[in-house]
Amino acid sequence: MSAIIPKWQMTEEDIKLNYITPALSSKWNGLMTMETQITDGKINLRDNLVSRARPKKADYVLYINANNPIAIVEAKDNQRAVADGLQQAMTYARMLDVPFAYSSNGDAFREHDFLTGDERDLSMEDFPTPDELYARFKKGANGAMSLR
For 54-108, what is each residue's pLDDT tens digit? Predict the structure, then answer.
């Protein structure tokens, strides 16, 4: 079955629906959330008026178990490079203190590993499983911390 429109014409939401969510849910089903709020939104003061900016939301947060996130995944449309969302993912990963950040445009994933400082590209099929990421976390943290 082929898509009804070419990938390069799809919105970010279309890319998430047709490419990123299937790639993640095949390995992370039940261990991920979407559109997860990261911040409450910046408070803006202007004269006597107070307002709050829109909260920041991660496209995907992957968990080892309840309340223990291990990775952030940011999605972009296919007109952008695979790594275009990586800085945003890394910012959210720092906020949540998680060791892995990913970006995808539906063609591949770009990974940043905070434990080693390494970055690499992965095919859509080669995204790591929960056990693989947890093993890398344990190795990188030298077993000093445990999310399980």
Answer: 778 999 999 999 889 999 999 999 999 999 999 999 999 999 999 999 999 999 9
Q: Which two tokens stand for residue 5?
A: 């429109």
Length of the chain: 148
Please indicate, yes or no, whether the overall pTM of this predicted structure exceeds 0.90: no
Q: Which amino acid is at 103?
A: S
CA gap 148, 132 in Å, rounded: 13
First to last CA, the chain: 39
Q: Residue 58: left if φ>0, alpha if ψ -120 to 50, beta else—which one?
A: beta
**Interatomic CA distance for residues 26 and 67, integer angstroms:** 21
**Nearest in space to 26 (alpha carbons), one of 58, 62, 1, 57:** 62
Q: Using DSSP, state whether 28 is helix, strand or coil.
A: helix
8-state DSSP, 42:
-
